[in-house]
Amino acid sequence: MERKRVLLCLAHMSGNEMRYIQEAFDTNWVVPLGPNVNGFEDDLKRFVTSSSSSNKDVVSNRNEEYPQTILPHENNPESLWRDPIKGLEDKHVVALCSGTAAVHLALIALGVEAGDEVICQSFTFCASSHPVTYQGAKPVFVDSEKETWNMDPVLLEEAIKDRIAKTGKKPKAIIVVYLYGMPAKIKEILAIADKYDIPVVEDAAEGLGSRYDGQVCGTFGEYGVLSFNGNKMITTSGGGALICPNEAARNDVMFYATQAREGYPYYQHEKIGYNYRMSNVCAGIGRGQMTVLDEHIAHHRHIAHLYEEAFKKIEGIDFHANPSSEYDSNYWLNTITIDPSIKVRGQENAYKTTVKGAVGGAAGVIHAVDSAHTDCEPNTNVEAMRVFLDKANIESRPLWKPMHKQPCYKDCPAYLNGVSESLFSKGMCLPSGPLVTDDDVRYIVETIQAAIE
Ligand SMILES: *Cc1c(COP(=O)(O)O)cnc(C)c1O
């Protein structure tokens, strides 16, 4: 009998979503505002400002039928996460239609304009940097350090100094990313940002619930970005949110998210606005998802622990784990690197065919390509592993290709140390979502072992 395909990461419903959606219909709030949007924002605000103790005791409810037995909190989320960390009480959360919109609005709120430069982590998904270009500004890419795979604080300072020397002005903002959920060296990055007085935007789209020193990622900088796309930690079908430093900033963001309307009895526009607010129906899904968020994070960490232990026994495969105890990744996606000396079955045929569907599945239209080759690509043993796993009904994916190697950014300045390019050449993402069982992990690890010659 053929195994059911193990997918990379798909969010999983709690069973409570319909209750909130039904309420939206019953009360005629099928619009981009309403009780679910407010309720979801309240839940998110309590969650992101909470001290770590509140979700430490939730463990993934392990057994082979985990996805069927996933249990939402016995408590209503309204009663959860009631202990905000001191200093975070002023934070506000605005629910939006996507994480990309959240990045864009953070840049607008920080006054990023045409001709400005914005520093951005190169090793990321394109949605971190694309909104910089929406503003007519230019991304300046900074490479990663080896421990967390996120922005290298040393290179960051070099980049800032060099941009000031070359352009005579400071970069307008710094976008740091929590790639695959792993916390960045945020304290060191903030220290440098403070020294030069440049605001930090944290792209925590992949890092919902990850913590550094007990504090939720996305609450350290000026603004924090969350995503609720279908493959993220939780989903609203599509959606995002922006964590704002205070009520004034929240009002500013809300203004731009709702077409920048002035207070006249008729439409009067003095600023260019956007239609970026989340709908009350999507927010209903979000409220239902909040009832399983702690359990989902616990499950991702549980799966990570199984991988970490298993890969200790396989030479040449390294699991990307928290570098030390300050770091507490949500392990949104579990990632490994494969040593270039490892021989994988089918390696001689790697890249002989081009990809027919979108890698990742989500894209509506992708451009067909004549050759699978570019000047920067995963090693043949990584591609062979991907194909081997695919044939065994296991979905995997290369790590994200660094932005400084993307043709659309070929003219942007980049400050490099080779780390992200090296990781891209040897890394891959493995199935990680709430639908992955202990037995799936065993099967995946066995298949990887079998692929090695
Ligand atoms: C998913 C993602 C985003 C964008 O979120 P959407 O909700 O898909 O627009 C931004 N940054 C990173 C790093 C992401 O992975």
From TrEMBL:
InterPro entries: DegT/StrS_aminotransferase, PyrdxlP-dep_Trfase, PyrdxlP-dep_Trfase_major, PyrdxlP-dep_Trfase_small. The modification N6-(pyridoxal phosphate)lysine is found at K232. The active site is at K232. One of its GO terms (biological process) is polysaccharide biosynthetic process. Keywords: Pyridoxal phosphate. One of its GO terms (molecular function) is transaminase activity. Belongs to the DegT/DnrJ/EryC1 family. This is DegT/DnrJ/EryC1/StrS aminotransferase. The lineage of its organism: Bacteria, Pseudomonadati, Bacteroidota, Bacteroidia, Bacteroidales.
